[in-house]
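User: Structure tokens for both sequences below?

Assistant:
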Amino acid sequence: MLRMESETGWWLITHPDHARLAGAFAAAWGNAQFRRPEPRVRVLHGIASHDDGWATRDAHPSITRQGKPSAFSNELVGKYSAFEEIDIQDYLSVRDRAVQIVAGNDPYAGLLISMHTCNLLTAHADRSTIAPEGLTLLDAFLNRQRDFQSQLLATIAADTTLTPAEKAEQTILEHFRLLQACDNLSLLTCVAFASPAHLLHPLPLNNGKTAEVKVLPIAPRHFRVAPWPFAEPELTLTFPARHVAGTLFTSSQSLDAAFNAAPVEQLTVTLSA
């Protein structure tokens, strides 16, 4: 779950819906300056589906020790530092499921999701918030993911529907970075981030170079993006969310009831050059 604070409570966005928004950003990506992803269908599938493993968990939100919805929030942008609030074994199972759901039908997309998962749990995870037994589980999980990536790479190498350029290590790395970028842009949107940010990695240009893309908030869920990576001169997208009233909840059951009783509404995000 992702949460965005309102004047009267919280907007809650599920992980799969956040990922669909990331996929919509990726579908709009590419212009005279920035390279479009190819193989397009498979890359877009990986980006839009990278959090599908969360669907069951997000259907029934829980609360933190403070009584807030347990969710990715504004203060967690750029880091994973709330492991003390979750069951690490359950969390890793969800992460593994997110990879396996997609990889079974599309190894290329599954590889991108596995790379994204490993990056989150190495480059961005705060290991000091994980108990020693949790670190053992985490490190074993990462080793299994790396072994699985090797299997997926072998399958991709043998795939005659892909061109040599599409199977190249550098191309796959660029697509992983695009997933990271679109995921981050969706996270900034879903928590209404209000500080300057950037899209994590240098991103490929048509001239063979790369550029860092910066994101400047100019209004709630309205960002200026530079340099501009999209085909259209301005981009406005919608994404589903549910609003629950109240800042704190006495139990996970009360939050779950409020969430499932709330209507699904459409919020907007606007990106400008």
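Moving on to the next sequence.
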Amino acid sequence: MSATAPSQSAKANLRTVALAKRDALPAVERKAAAEAIATRPFPLRIEPGVIVSGFFPIKTEINPMPLMRRLADAGAQLALPVIAGRGKPLTMRAWSFGAPLKAGQWGIREPTPDAPEVAPDILIVPLAVFDRAGNRIGYGAGYYDMTIRSLRAKKPVTAVGIAFSVQEMPQVPATERDERLDLVLTEREVIDLRDK
């Protein structure tokens, strides 16, 4: 048995528990949570032209679109991820509200191939589970860990998790391949992890 097997099993268990809690939230509460995050002051300064990547939510994920619209109104250039292939970092492509989208892997909406590739300054990151040490669990493919690592090798990048407060766990197991979050936004609070 490999050294990471217990960690992977623990992660899978935490993911199952957190997603069940997320799935149990009524749609009206999920919508109100997304609006609460969007209307609260954003914890990072948005200079005109700063590139912020977000994502289109799937299943019962919190919807970052209200926040992204607010950041675009503040002058941010938006981007969305495109899956480049298993084992590869995500490609971030420029996008704005009203620009064309196509269905990508798992039916996730993503920019068309002619949209320019960009290197975001801020990544709004989906997650299944998070803790107050900045650790997160995604869906198991490692796309965001690879992407954050790749971008951080090139420039300073702030990784901002976005989730419902019920997705928080006391401790999330982490390996050397896992990239830490700098902030987590929930409907209840802004959790600043940069000094952890």
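User: Anything stand out in the second?

Assistant: The two ends are 31 Å apart (CA to CA).
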